[in-house]
Amino acid sequence: MPIAKGAFMTTELGLLIVTIVFGLFQVLGTGMVVSQERGLNFSMSARDDERPLTGARARIHRAYRNFMETFGFFAAAVLVAGLLGRHDALTLSGAWVYVISRFIYWPLYVWGVPVIRSLVWGASVVGIVLVLLGIVVG
Predict the structure, then answer these.
(1) Gap between the Cα atoms of 112 and 101, Å rounded
(2) Contacts of residue 16, Cβ cutoff 8 Å, sequence gap at least 6
(3) Which InterPro entries did the record assign (predicted)?
(4) Number of domains in the chain
(5) pLDDT tens for residues 99-120?
(6) 7-47 per-position pLDDT tens digit
(7) Which of 3, 64, 96, 107 registers the highest number of CB atoms within 10 A of its CB?
(8) Contact criterion met (CB below 8 Å) for 34 and 43
């Protein structure tokens, strides 16, 4: 897909955009569940008296925080790969592994599924490592 004269968007950059949209979904979803549990007045306050979330709402909030812990590394790796013109099987498979893992991870966390959730999280980290390997090796 042409984006500027002589430039093309790689699949990895497209997957980064998909992941950004997924992150925005999580921001909005987390905000909604926090407001549901703590009330609109709390959401519009300075939040000095924060009560802990419970149940699925707490898991939604933690799943979002967990996403944010890895997203920056993924985004940076994909952007570096794009800037350096690295686009190969490693960067492509790594980006796909990360994105698919993050999409699978979210419902597993929200539903409270142990063990498998952690394995899927590990797969997302492997995806980032694959992108980095593609940068270094490519």
Answers:
(1) 16
(2) 74, 75, 78, 79, 95
(3) MAPEG-like_dom_sf, Membr-assoc_MAPEG
(4) 1
(5) 999 999 999 999 999 999 999 9
(6) 678 999 999 999 999 999 999 999 898 888 787 777 777 87
(7) 64
(8) yes
